[in-house]
Amino acid sequence: MREKIGLSGPEPHWFFGNLKEIVERKEKLGYDDSNEWFNVLHKKYGDKFVIYFGAQMNIVLSDEEDIKEVFIKNFSNFSDRIVPPIFSENRLNSSLLQNRYENGWKHTRSAIAPIFSTGKMKAMHETIASKIDIFLEILKEKSEEIGGGGGGKWDIYEDFQGLTLDVIGKCAFAIDSNCQRDRNDVFYVNARKFISNIDIRHSKVISSSFILPELGWLWRMMYKYTELAAAEIPLVEGLSDV
């Protein structure tokens, strides 16, 4: 199909498309290197190439004018996001993460635009700064604990996660979470579970729903039995109580 529109790309698997290669790369490296991989593919196939999620064709762009065409000039024709059928049962389906309804993003953007005004951003500055102060205190404490001239080190990734969730929790949801100090904080635990289980590496059901969207009725029925649903329910209920 891609040849008919004059495009090329990495050779897809007959059933999985390029999804198989994407998952294998993530498992081998331990992280998502899509940006680096796409740069390699752009050098090989040009500023436009095709990858497949199952039988679904996706065009990846890097040319500035093409990107402007999609995101600005003809945005109304490109506002949908790729959402596998299984997520129609997801209670966060109407959120910024997965807004997929007709004109949904247009309405959402109109609603959230005032949040990012200069006045609102200034109002959030103090909150963000207070969370960063805690982050810096934690870094100082840990460096003193494992330092002592012995060349100790630790993985800072979880500390950044805690900072990010504390800022999002307070600024977006008015939640006074303690993700940086308390790894058992409900918001921290459930948010991490949700993000982890939305990864196609960790859910055969989600990856299968990408490959066979025609079986949407089956994936929607199975959703409530997935680890993603188990993580989502307490997270959404906690936000609803705010």
Automatic annotation (TrEMBL):
Signal peptide: none annotated. Transmembrane segments: none annotated. InterPro entries: Cyt_P450 (IPR001128), Cyt_P450_E_grp-II (IPR002402), Cyt_P450_sf (IPR036396), Insect_CytP450_Detox (IPR050476). Its cofactor is heme. GO terms for molecular function: heme binding; iron ion binding; monooxygenase activity; oxidoreductase activity, acting on paired donors, with incorporation or reduction of molecular oxygen. Keywords: Heme, Iron, Metal-binding, Monooxygenase, Oxidoreductase. Gene3D superfamilies: Cytochrome P450. Pfam families: p450. Belongs to the cytochrome P450 family. This is Cytochrome P450. It comes from Caenorhabditis tropicalis.
